[in-house]
């Protein structure tokens, strides 16, 4: 008799339940979201590490011999963090409420760092700022709610919490977290199969995580491996990033450095892929320090704005066939003056491949729309050498709540498929984009679709003043004829307007009468 099927675990439901519990505990504490985020993420990390260690402990059981005992090296050789006894989750759960739980968890984190040099100085040690009651509740909740998950599911819970904390913190949260749907589209378009990947503004490392997932989904028996390099200015965010990588089973070189003035990886021409969500419109950058820097081959803009410093940083890091995808302020697409001079050179170099307009409310820091830029240093020798694909995705979105939007998986796949068809690649439909594709591209090949996408030649771009604003090229979607005569419809609308004006006049008179009565 066949065993009953294992019930499917809804990881996002699990994450939501844990968030609800953690947020309730925070609300009853004296801590702000920013102060609470790191300790909670640390406990999710610890539960993940404990789960992996327990699995490997079972797998290695019985393999000790008289001459050789199983030890730390055996776990680390399998890519598993080694946990001493005092760092085990079960050990922390057994502590009594009268014990100093904050110190015990701090010591557990310190012991993990001592045994695993890659995490040195990374794990949180702020648990003594939480009360014993809060820590007991958190430990029990994390253990109970995450008890039946494993592997990548922990990573998804960690990402979920990063996003929730980013919303809670507002502008500060946006400094370290890029919404997952934005990251996924960037990854799907630049297609990082294997090689070196750089994020010079890496925040909490979401670009690396989604790139690794892309490799996992598209490996097809081939050896897809990414070497990860990141830069991040804020020490606390570096720790978030390294924990995020670890909870997803990844490792990388993450440098705490200021990308404007520091180039720790000697980046020029070294990378296969560059992905980033840099800060927009930064001013007061000391350009005197950058004058001899090889990362800015098209010259430094005279304007007090860092956008084209970032854009050249991404461009110059690519090797001769490298691809980049990054978020950029809308204003950069039409910026005049010295920024226009840099943009001309970039376009003339035939490196600009795809530009995507994104609607408002996708980010936690700004409600304004943004643009995604995609560079391809290898496209010059292809049939796409003299053209750029423009996509207007402003009308493509999923409304999360009144203030936030994202893309559904099928929408991400659909937008990425436009780029695939433009490049002569096959469309993908695993995420459910079949209906969207058949509606816009029924023949399965690329065509310009008014209001959605258009390919422009470099000559056309030149005539538009070297603008990279998709709205200038994509146009407006055609509206269907509803069969109603225009004159008839206009008359109906005019009658309705007159009726509303009459009602407004009556209401205005009534309000005036009421006010006069009150004043009398």
Task: Summarize this structure as a short list of keywords or feature phrases.
globular, nine-stranded mixed beta sheet, Ferritin, two-stranded antiparallel ribbon, single chain, 45% helix, 2 domains, 18 helices, 520 residues, Rossmann fold, alpha/beta
Label the overall shape.
globular
CATH architecture of the largest domain: 3-Layer(aba) Sandwich
| Mean pLDDT across every amino acid position | 88
Low-confidence stretches: 1-7
CA gyration radius, whole angstroms: 27 Å
What is the SS-derived class? alpha/beta
Please give the CATH class of the largest domain.
Alpha Beta
What is the helical fraction, as a range of percent?
40-55%
Number of helices: 18
- Termini separation comes to 89 Å
Content of β-strand: 5-15%
Helix and strand element order: HHHHHHHHHEHEHEEHEHEEEEEHHEHHH
Q: Find the CATH topology of the largest domain.
A: Rossmann fold
